[in-house]
Design brief:
Helices cover about 40% and strands about 15% of the residues. It is an alpha/beta fold and about 250 residues long. GO terms for molecular function: hydrolase activity.
């Protein structure tokens, strides 16, 4: 699927079971949603593709909604490059469908009041448009925002470019930026020295919150079903979903 250096998103990746058996999660310092986004601050989630905001931060978003925090989503791309050569999911259909899936996912999390800003940067070309993205983020965020973006070394070029742009925009604006591993769980292994575990914090999700997150993930039907026109399996096969719907989320603070 993608390769950045030695961070390869190919094959089945590290199994969900291998991660669940790792003692590192239990040893990881826990953090609460109210600590990640204190009162008076707005949470801004910068998602490279529709679904990244829910896969990475769905539980946190749900908890922040319950706390009454202001929530804003920045959709970097419309995710219209997920099904190359597909006649079932051509780019025009994806461009229309995937933002609607995000809206439905937010509704399932009871976050209808969250704002969504679409930047419409071409899917797969975020690296080439990184300076544009950084400028758009500078215009959007404020020093009081807490910004969540995919980790700069997440393994997917769009994710890494999004992380770099967000970190730099936050530095210039004086906002806090927290990075979110998404594809990391595919290519990394438990205790992997390439991951900055010393920065990692575990956000525990209660059963009801986890259930809402899983329900929200299921809103992304375009990514969860096989493509009969190409014979390809789902973009998000069960193992990928399982790795990202554990009873906790991890944030690099």
């Amino acid at each position: 699927m993608a390769t950045v250096g030695d961070r390869q998103i190919q094959g089945a990746g590290t199994t969900p079971e291998a991660w669940l058996q790792w003692s590192g999660f239990g040893e990881m310092p826990a953090i609460e949603a109210s600590q990640l986004v204190p009162p008076g601050h707005r949470a801004v989630v910068v998602a490279p593709h529709p679904d990244d905001e829910i896969l990475g931060c769905g539980g946190l978003l749900c908890q922040l909604g319950e706390l009454g925090r202001r929530l804003a989503l920045v959709a970097v791309t419309d995710g219209d490059g997920s099904h190359p050569r597909s006649t079932l999911w051509p780019t025009t259909r994806l461009r229309n469908t995937r933002p609607l899936e995000t809206r439905e996912a937010l509704r399932r999390l009871r976050l209808e009041r969250a704002t969504v800003t679409r930047l419409a940067i071409p899917d797969g070309q975020v690296s080439e448009q990184e300076a544009v993205l950084q400028q758009r983020l500078l215009e959007f965020i404020t020093p009081e925002d807490v910004v969540f973006a995919t980790w700069r070394l997440d393994g997917h070029p769009d994710h890494e470019a999004t992380g770099r742009a967000a970190v730099e925009a936050c530095r210039l604006r004086g906002a806090r930026c927290i990075e979110v591993p998404v594809w990391t769980w595919h290519w990394a292994t438990p205790g992997d020295p390439r991951v900055p575990w010393e920065r990692a914090r575990r956000l525990d999700l209660e059963e009801d919150v986890l259930a809402l997150k899983k329900h929200a993930v299921n809103a992304f039907g375009s990514q969860l079903t096989e493509d009969a026109s190409t014979g390809q399996g789902p973009i998000l096969p069960p193992a990928v979903v399982a790795r990202l719907t554990r009873a906790w989320e991890v944030y690099l603070t």
